[in-house]
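Example for tutorial group B:
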């Protein structure tokens, strides 16, 4: 089959200004909860885009671990490629794609580290294997083979037993949004697309052509 011939008509829902929330965080919370209720596979998965000092963009999938009026939170290795890129350019973009609901949410803004207390609290809530894994994986670095990870995991498991501390190179980031976009697929490619941008203490809501 010719990949150019793949087509899908989006007809499940609509998004209009009158029915959407004036606050983008409320709109996001509603859509996220609807994705969870619909049992969309990994509704908490989001694509994170960063830009390096050489202006080359890169993306990867991370998992949202919290959201409130301060922003969107995820956790990772600060020494990873994304960590290094955020250290040099603290702006990023996030995207959720809930295929089954024919919806996309895009979020842009400045990124900051969460507090040590927040990182500690989340780290100690993780399964033991995940906590050991944070020590075992030199994320984004070249390794000789999987045996490096297995050996490291065994070493740190023996060293820390049931109480591994949070690694100093591991913790949370928070993206503080200054722009949101909500996309709902519609028939004939005439999709609904609303953009929210900061305006004073509130948000300006506008419709964009798809």
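The residue assignment follows.
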């Amino acid at each position: 089959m010719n990949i150019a011939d793949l087509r899908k008509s989006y007809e499940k829902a609509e998004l209009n200004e009158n029915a959407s929330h004036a606050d983008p965080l409320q709109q996001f919370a509603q859509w996220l909860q609807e994705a969870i209720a619909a049992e969309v596979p990994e509704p908490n998965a989001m694509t994170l885009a960063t830009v390096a000092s050489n202006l080359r963009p890169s993306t990867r999938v991370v998992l949202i671990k919290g959201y409130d009026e301060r922003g969107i939170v995820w956790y990772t290795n600060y020494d990873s490629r994304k960590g290094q890129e955020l250290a040099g350019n603290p702006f990023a973009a996030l995207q959720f794609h809930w295929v089954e609901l024919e919806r996309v949410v895009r979020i842009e803004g400045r990124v900051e580290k969460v507090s040590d207390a927040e990182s500690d609290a989340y780290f100690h809530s993780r399964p033991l294997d995940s906590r050991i894994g944070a020590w075992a994986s030199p994320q984004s670095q070249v390794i000789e083979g999987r045996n490096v990870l297995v050996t490291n995991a065994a070493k740190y498991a023996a060293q820390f037993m049931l109480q591994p501390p949070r690694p100093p190179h591991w913790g949370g980031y928070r993206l503080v949004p200054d722009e949101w976009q909500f996309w709902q697929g519609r028939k004939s490619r005439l999709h609904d697309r609303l953009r929210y941008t900061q305006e004073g203490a509130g948000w300006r809501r506008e419709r964009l052509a798809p």
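The longest strand covers residues 170-184. Compare this with the pattern of hydrophobic and polar residues in the output above.
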